[in-house]
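Reader question, answered in our methods column.
A reader sent in the components of a multi-part assembly and asked whether the whole thing could be modeled at once rather than chain by chain. We filled in our standard form and ran it. Here is what they sent:
COMPLEX SIZE: two components
ENTRIES:
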Amino acid sequence: MERHEAPAVGGLESRFFTATIFLFLFLFLGAGVLLLSADVLYVDMPAVKTVFSDPNILHALWLSLWTSTAAVAISLLFALPMGYALSRYSFPGRILADTMVDLPIVFPPLVAGLTLLVFFSQTALGRWIESTGLTFVFQPRGIVLCQVLVSASYAIRTVKAAFDEIDPRLEKVALTLGSGRWGAFFRVALPLARNGILAGGILTWARAFGIFGPLMIFVGSFRGRTEVLPTTVFLEQSIGHLEVALAVSLLLIAVAGGALLAIRLLTGKALFR
Amino acid sequence: MRPSAFLRGVLLAPLLLPACGKGPSGSGAPRRELVFYCGAGLRDPAEKLISFFESRFPVRIRTDYAGSEVLLSRLKLHREGDLFMPGDARYVDQARKAGFVADRKSLHKWRLVIFVPKGNPAGVKDLEDLATEKVRLGLGDPRACAVGKAARRLFEKNGIPWEKVKKGVDFLSLTVNELALQVQAGSLDAVIVWDATARQFARWGETIAIPPEKNLVSTVDLAVLSFSKFPGLARKLLRAAASPEGKAAFEGF
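And here is the structure of the entire assembly that came back:
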């Protein structure tokens, strides 16, 4: 996808236009830099040392990284077929299905934690699942489940939008040229939706990486076991370690920023058309 | 260098804004707004105390309910507020050492109990049973709340090393209420809570008493904070709370 070139016509009006749009860009980014530097200035060296020497915080970092990545993989596994189905097929109840997909975006994440807790400890099916040894309550895999529940919608929504933009005729052409249904999906639709899928993955990862409210209820905040990085920030500030909380926040921002930048660089071109 | 004065100002601004008198209270005296830091497990009697205060004095009480350790941290950070009632008088001792306490009175005593879901699915009989792997155990986080610190002292008093207990713990909470909630949801086999908490949640669980010789008694103190903007009024509230009428707030708790 090539970036659109700005119109080459010069003149005062054109310059005024450019200045205006860049003013807003500058204001927004400037505010971000200002806020970040407030964090940086408040954090002192002992706090930074605590962050990098505390095995529990490093464990929380690792736990945050792998759980949110696993959540993206599972979300995309569902988002690809679901996005395609919602985009290409009209079926009874489609509006209802579409609405249900959006629900987790709207409700507070805390609701997901409470719902999961009640499901696994109060319903027969939930208790049966827990009794098979596939335990979620107070376990790291419960973190992944929570993250998928609150963030998969972003993947499904973005992937559906990507399929919406692809002309179905292209797949029909592939079919007439002898490709099967699967071939047309994997060799035509999927590559064309690549940017949308990546964008969906990024949004899902960002959301999954940042949640902690539902986790506090569903898996607890156990140091070295179920404590993720956002939980660390909350716990440290609540017991008065503001410097440590901010130092962990900066680590969180750095890791998230680094990951987002890396994906953009690795995939080469601009992700969003 | 850190611009702490500026930053603290920014962080605290929302807390300092509303501390001014609001409207007359029938008799004509302006109502003063007092800030009351209260342990989350004491919510029920605190609410009764507050309506008693507001019916007797020209005050409006703004409350902050959280784990006691969390409240103490807030005191250290913000250095403002008028009344402080944590889940254990030890926090008042700590606040007094830091110079935050102008006056204090004891209002209540409570004990720890083991609280299990109805039917006691894990067959818990006493403290020793809790430190085993097969019991899904929940405790208060000693870093955050009074009930967590007290439970830790309880295990140590009974010769059960904390490190061993910690290995078997499945859930650590920030307040005592969350422990009872997990028992209500049936996601834990046993928790250690205050006797009053167990009574509050009696519909959803069973209480296993800890014999007095093994148990601990915690005192609930109400303190007037040294940074109170209305120290005279805050002391009046303290005296009223310690009167028989005030202590009635703890009846049945």
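What stands out: The beta strands of chain B are 22-24, 30-39, 59-66, 83-85, 101-117, 137-140, 169-173, 190-194, 205-209, 217-225. Residues 9-26 of chain B have pLDDT under 50 and may be disordered.
Send us your own complexes using the same form.
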